[in-house]
Amino acid sequence: MLYAEVSVNAPAAGRSAFSYQIPAGMNVRPGQAVLVPFGQKILQGIVIEVAEQPRFAETRPLDGLIQPPICLTPQQLAAGLFISRHYLAPLFASLALWLPPGFERQAAAEICRTSQPADVALTPLESAIMAVLPDTCIGQKALEQQFGAAKTGPALRHLLEQGLIDRSYHLAPTRIKPRLERVIILNISADAAADTAAGLTIRAPRQADILFRLANSRGRLPLSELRRELGDITSSVNTLKNKRLLNVIEEEAPRVPCLPAAMELPLTPALTAAQQSALTAVNQGLGTAVPGRAPVFLLHGVTGSGKTEVYLHATAHALQQGRQVIILVPEIALTHQIVERFTARFPGRVAVLHSRLSLGERFDQWRAIAEGGLDIVIGPRSALFAPAARLGLIVMDEEHEWAYKQQDTPPLYHTRTVARRLAQEYGAALLLGSATPDVESYHLAVTGRYQLLELPDRLTPHVNTPLPPVTLVDLRQELKSGNLSIFSRRLKTEMTAALRNGEQIILFYNRRGGATFIQCRDCGEVIKCHNCRLPLGYHPVENRLVCHHCNAGYRLPETCPVCRSRRIKYLGLGTQKLEEETRREFPESRILRWDSDAARGKDAGYRIFDEFRSGKADILIGTQVVARGLDLPGVGLVGVINADTALNLPDFRAGERTFQLLAQVAGRAGRGEFAGRVVVQSYQPEHYAVAAAVGHNYAEFYQKELDYRRMLGYPPFGELAVITTRHVREAESLRQAQNIKQKLTGQLDARGLTGISFIGPAPAFVPRRRGCYRFQLIVKGAEVTDFLNRAGLPAGLSIDVDPLGLS
């Protein structure tokens, strides 16, 4: 007998696989999606291994194969196991990243009445439940909706104990299926249909219209299209069917996302010598890559140096080899721009995958990729898990961006790390691109682990255009001189000149909302979130207070909750407030704002980008989304309202993030006809990150940052993991964290390990979130992941391996 080791879709399963018997005649292989009994439920699972001996003595038989059959490739299975092991993440969640959209379904409970007589005392609620139970089974959720979930659970448990009801489980129905469309097809030739239509023009004009349209459309049209053009045609279609002139069939009709129109690129631009050198290296890497040995390239090119053109040429080379390509961007908002360029160069071959597509659109794009119909996949981090079985090239644009790190729900993977592993499994090449590379990536490149490719020159309509000059304004001096405005005198002068000259302007400020906190002027109380105990931000457009950590909304208080004073002051600055001030200072200008509040709809970000690019606005105000890779030729001036917003966070990457944001947003200026310039306002102009960004000097920043990391043992000179405990009681959360540290310290002593140290436990930077107190223990040193994997930590902990920061 053969046995399957299965990862089960249940929180209790954690990082473990469970042993199941494979029934005779059932063909099961690693990667197969199966149904398994788990407790009283039937749940989804993925087979990890097939062996002759089980790992556990007690086994149960597999319940069956999931239909239609789904099986991860060996490369996907290996990469998923790596994710679970490296990030200490639940096993099923790590493997499920490659499953089709809508695959995961939970077990639903059904309640049935038994034949046992009710000879025990029942509560009124229990009697009511028994009274509504039909002869057949009913879903438990239906009972909970009728009687209330909180009360129904205990009542059902008592009825189960008394043997009056039975409870069984089954998987919920499939959430998504292929879409079917009714299509009308001619049963006669097009010429015969046209002749017949001519004879029906007077006595049956609607039938004639249908036949004429079908004759001019190769004999087939979707019924929905004909209805949009002709109205209600049911009777006419039925008549023509009875005459055997046409037929109505059902065909599968893929749901296609609304892609941006392809850009007009009549000629492929000639590559510069630097671009050609980089492309040659990547193409050679594509030719030599084999499973187990995948080349990684870091394309370090200044903003506007033509990195995308290298991506396009490398993609063309991969496609010529019959391979598929994944193009990753850090945010959904950036897919619009890069999809335009790729669809222009490779029409009909581009798929888009991201969370703002409908479930049906994602499902159909996923299937088209899996079937080989689309061989270029574009999207944010989730696009990495597209079913590209012939994967040859992965491109990560803006590879330094923090958005490539999954931060909400496990597995808390970093896309760059997983992309490197996936490329290794498939024998594909990985191309990382950035004007401001991640310090760890650049260190790997200069030490030879990656191959470093350089694009040092800007490509604009003017030959040898330098990076835009940056003026640094000391806001402390502005205050001393009596200027209390958001805008320094230099920035206001430059904006006035730019608007007069017909140039577009970007104003960057990395905080959304209208005011960053609300304070009582009498007692000093700051209005805080009930769940997180953090200051609430004021959003004037919605006219409400919002917690930027749990997104809870609150009504505006009329009085202070402590002293009942009405003297409440709105303090601080956000993008909505900046928009108001800009309209006040420049009333004739046309202004757009781009932040997560303004771009909530499915295509809102695309709309804002297109409106600004087409010249329908003069000033674009935004958060970090406006700093990320946008190509806006009309922008002549960039203003950074405050360079210090992230500089003083208790985070070892604060300097790096500040440098990257400033350098990236500065790079939006001067990419077209206008000579660019940048004004950066700061209260800390002497900080090394600000000074290096002003000078466009990545090498200077990198060296200072590397010295700092080396001194403190931070990446790339050591590994990090953050263990977070959560509890509604602060003392209990702290006690759990202390127990974990004690356990890990004992492990170090018992195994005689050195080179690993602990920081904390201490309250997290956000000490209370969503009603739970949070304490963090930081583990730092060499081979941290291996140490934690062997430590036997309890389930339910939040463990973030390779965290973006410590805040």
What does this protein structure show overall?
With 807 residues, the protein is α/β, with parallel strands linked by helices. The protein folds into seven domains: 3-98, GIY-YIG endonuclease (3-Layer(aba) Sandwich); 107-171, Arc Repressor Mutant, subunit A; 180-252, no CATH class; 273-406 and 419-450, P-loop containing nucleotide triphosphate hydrolases (Rossmann fold, 3-Layer(aba) Sandwich); 470-512 and 578-709, P-loop containing nucleotide triphosphate hydrolases (Rossmann fold); 515-572, no CATH class; 719-801, Alpha-Beta Plaits, CATH 3.30.70.600. Helix content is 32%, strand content 23%. It is built from 24 helices and 34 strands. The strands form eight sheets. It has a seven-stranded parallel β-sheet, with helices on both faces.
Topology overview:
Layout: E1 3-8, E2 18-21, E3 33-38, E4 41-51, E5 60-61, E6 64-65, H1 74-86, H2 91-95, E7 107-113, H3 124-132, E8 138-139, H4 140-147, H5 149-161, E9 165-171, E10 180-186, H6 190-200, H7 205-215, E11 220-222, H8 223-230, H9 234-242, E12 246-252, H10 273-288, E13 296-301, H11 307-320, E14 324-328, H12 335-345, E15 350-352, H13 359-370, E16 376-379, E17 391-397, H14 415-426, E18 429-434, H15 439-446, E19 451-455, E20 470-474, H16 475-480, H17 489-500, E21 504-508, E22 517-520, E23 537-539, E24 544-546, E25 553-554, E26 568-571, H18 575-585, E27 591-594, H19 604-613, E28 619-622, E29 635-640, H20 654-666, E30 677-682, H21 688-694, H22 698-712, E31 719-727, H23 730-751, E32 756-769, E33 772-781, H24 784-789, E34 798-801
Parallel strand pairs: 2-5, 13-18, 13-19, 14-16, 14-17, 15-16, 17-18, 20-30, 21-28, 21-29, 27-28, 29-30
Antiparallel strand pairs: 1-2, 1-4, 3-4, 3-6, 7-8, 7-9, 10-11, 10-12, 22-26, 23-24, 24-25, 31-33, 31-34, 32-33
Helix pairs in contact: 1-14, 4-5, 6-7, 10-11, 20-21, 21-22
Pfam families: DEAD (PF00270), Helicase_C (PF00271), PriA_3primeBD (PF17764), PriA_C (PF18074)
Binding site for Zn(2+) 1: 520, 523, 560, 563
EC number: 5.6.2.4
